[in-house]
Design goal:
Radius of gyration: 24 Å
Oligomer: single chain
Shape: globular
Strand order of the largest sheet: 6-5-7-1-8-11-4-12
Helix content: 25-40%
Number of helices: 16
Order of helices and strands: HHEHEEHHEHEEHHHHHHEHEEEEEHHH
Amino acid sequence: MAKRKVLQPDEPLYLHEHRRPVTRRDFLAQGFLSGVGMVIAPTVLGMFGARRANAAQFVCSIRTGAGLIPFICLDLAGGANVAGSNVLVGGPGGQLDLLSAAGYSKLGLPASMTPGNANQVNTEFGLAFHSDSAFLRGMQSKTATTTRANVNGTIFVARSDNDTGNNPHNPMYGIAKAGAAGDLVVLIGNDPTDSGGNSAAPASMMDPTLRPTKIASASDATGLVNTGQLVSLLNNQQAAQVAKAAEDISALKMTKLAEDPNLEGLVQCGYVQTTDLITRFGSPDVVNPNLDTDIVGGTNSIFTSAELNQSSFQRTASVMKLVVEGYAGAGTVENGGYDYHDSTRATGESRDFVAGQMMGAMLEYAARKAQPLMLYVITDGSLASNGTLDNSTGGRGKGVWTGDNSDTAATFALVYNPAGRPAMTSATAHQIGYMRPDGSVETAATPIANNVPLLAEAVVLNYLALHNRVGDLSTVLPMNSISSAVNTLTAFAPIR
């Protein structure tokens, strides 16, 4: 009998169940691509064209963070398992309102591992996980016990399409419309897409002026504050004085030229913003995750140097550094290779463990910086098991993943609060919506159960709820379709 090859965590998936990958998203879902790309800076003339307001309306703004809760979206491209084998899901009574044995089998859990058995439930993070969840094990490996004690969460039981980047899962623009902003940029993401990740953003939330800046590495992060050679030759204060002098000289020259007031304002604004950039961020080191000893290089860092060389963790570190420390308002971290139904369980367990490490790193970093954080995990569709077990060491005796299944899909959110575990709005608020006994989404349970754009709206609603601003939903999202269901879709009590 031929020995089955064991896939490495980042190795591409060669699946017989799918056609050959032809699009970027197809390659990403199977792990052939990482979150890479390029950003093209606007031209000077393009900037002029974008500033057609009259001179009296021209305002030169200096970006400052909004002081809202940092928000990160983890986008697992390909259709990962969330419900059942990772985050527990149940019937109308909540996460522990047990499904049928067949339902749990479909979700990858054999009869001996269903949550009705002893020691199969873990609530260290507030939200109930299966005790052998790969997500959970990864999160535990990167978090302190004190961090876990200050986390709570909810699972959104909702269908989404399989194997596509067209699910409008990503709520980034809605989060920005709620007021999230950073000192350097509003939104960031690993990919040069409109959402910053694999899944799309809802059309009703889109705002081209807020398109995420591509951040996938330390060099991308430091590129946000590149001040050239000036600061390396002088100290921050001296460099700022030089920039201010250039600003003043420019202003004098402009008064003697008959230029369009918009052009004058734009040129002068460039000098003002450069002076501010040098004053506050003279050295790019301040945003470099590779130089943050909480992340790497310290006595108790979140990542080892070897781990940080892996693209998954480099992308995670770069985004969490900028978002948690307030340099960006919200960010998307994308990880590919989650279309792992290769008739084993071991591959999925390995990839889910890495995803859990990424989640745990974000939560732990927020704890070390004493900042709150909302983490939202999405994936395009899901998958199911036929009940066959993988009894290999990596398979852990669980059901093999044999095919895509959008009926088992779900997303979930975790919130860290340095002041203590966030409260929920009710005893059953750890689960929004529910599953039928056979392990499929009950599409009539909530307005979001079979509508991905409304699911994204519900995430924005819960972000507002954390700030005690549920009443602002119609202002933030004027075109929303969930106002009549606010009470049933709000899971988190305010922490601000």
